[in-house]
């Protein structure tokens, strides 16, 4: 199915998607995920020098997932902080995209690493007023892992219990779309149907899987590799469902208000992101160790080699947001009943990214006709 490019989209979204809270004060007070100042053996450089645009801090959100390697490595190695000088990074860890969108809307974060589905949902529900996608970060890194004793082929999914991290998150959309294409019916909201879809935090899924309460899970790295290490088997790598095996799993978003008021800070973060991605691809082993150190700092435990190594291999790091695949993701959300008439026109603003890439002698990246006009 071709990706949507220039066709206009209407501005309505179903209330079926988790509603964004209206009280910004309450959102700012309750927190999302966790902030963690715990340091590993290596201490990332502190903010020092001149503040970019005179701004004291920039609030950055991300997940403690290997699919967010740019954020993990960039923060751990100080590659993003270096570009910000005296403007301090205030990091915040999230468990899933919808809560990160809530934080962005509330002003609790300014910039975030996040998946495509919550980006589309957040942009649509705000009628195109809350965010812009400003860069890519990662492709791939998602698998359907199953108990091989209960599920031996893709034809054995009927009647089984399959987990995703959260209603309406990127993996939830992918699973619902796949089941629909297989002719299996599932109620989007309840998760009940020919297959029972269980929405559960990534942190809880491995224990549920090992206890036998789940038959499988459609999850990102490193959760997928944790399940394999616990006796699971990869039934389907999501890369096989996409042209050339590429699809956006993580992109970078920014509050439109912050982008308008502090474009120099956004540009500095993007310089750090581009430099981090280049360093990751040039130094994969060192980058893998840095990502694991950050995971330990954020969660209290590093990943063992039998989880870290395959998880790292399954993710491709890129500056390209793979905009054409975002159009397909939106169509999947519509088919799943999570969105009606999603808004995509103007969701991208790659101008600062392309400015950074040009300065590095790299080619510009295309927004598939979905950028600001």
Main sheet specs:
6 strands, mixed
Rg on CA atoms, Å = 19 Å
Assembly state: single chain
Measured distance between first and last alpha carbons: 25 Å
Could you tell me the mean pLDDT?
A: 89
Describe the global form.
Answer: globular
Beta content comes to 15-25%
Count of individual beta strands: 11
The amount of helix comes to 25-40%
Major beta sheet, strand line-up:
2-1-3-10-4-11
Low-pLDDT segments: 1-40
What's the tally of helices?
14
Determine the structural class based on helices, strands and strand pairing: alpha/beta
What is the helix/strand order? HEHHEHEHEEEHEHEHEEHHHHEHH
List the helices and strands and how they pair.
Blueprint: H1 24-30, E1 57-63, H2 69-76, H3 79-84, E2 88-94, H4 97-106, E3 111-114, H5 116-125, E4 131-140, E5 142-146, E6 161-164, H6 170-181, E7 196-199, H7 205-211, E8 216-220, H8 223-229, E9 233-237, E10 248-255, H9 256-261, H10 263-282, H11 284-299, H12 305-313, E11 315-317, H13 323-335, H14 351-359
Parallel strand pairs: 1-2, 1-3, 6-7, 6-8
Antiparallel strand pairs: 3-10, 4-10, 4-11, 5-8, 5-9
